[in-house]
Amino acid sequence: METHEIYELIEARRKELNLSQSQLGMLALGQDNSSVIQAIKRGSSPSAHKLEAICNALGLEFYVGRKRSEGEPQFTSNHERVEVLQDFAFVERFDVSLSAGPGASGENAKKLAPVAFRRDWMLEKGLVAEKCVVCSVRGNSMEPMLFDGDLVLLDRRQTDVRDGQIYGVVDIEGDTRIKRIEMIDNGLLLRSENPECRTELRHGDDANRVQIIGSLAWSGHSYDTSRQAPSRQTPSRQTPRRRTMKHDWI
Q: Does 16 or 191 have the greater pLDDT score?
């Protein structure tokens, strides 16, 4: 089979599964980019190892052996895996820790492997994968809702502050944080869930310098079996008051 025929076969199956070239690269080779597929497109023959990995990710058969008869059955490798992948959407993740306490700079954040969420769940919640981002939590000031090391899904469309909701923000010194935000006259309160942690005030121009990354839509906890599993709470839902904020995306 010629290289261009391999590329056409890969592309047809990739589009059938609704995967981007970079997502295919991550699934097959652990590379969150399209360089391998683009190299095949340019006529570069892939190594057997890479081609087998791509075929496995796409549910295509990779076979080397004696020529088989026309009536001999052929089996699709990793079929179940491919069927499952079609049920999931992939959300970008960055190596940014949203500090629950003192802030940590989020400059020069690098992309990590994306996080998979069920498409039907995201549809139910009104979330769009391309408009969300996953980050991690650092610190204990948002306990018992969010714990150190938790992953959080932020809806980046929600950039207008709603009173009492939890947001990932870039604070006035450029630190990335996650707090419950309450609105006051000409200012904001950055409130922690942990009663031992103080509430912080951003007033006047400082309030306008708080940049919204997105609102909390989901959190995931990695449980430590050496301690009791923490309880999970749902962010309170209140009648929103809106305040349009300046923002830059991570």
A: 191
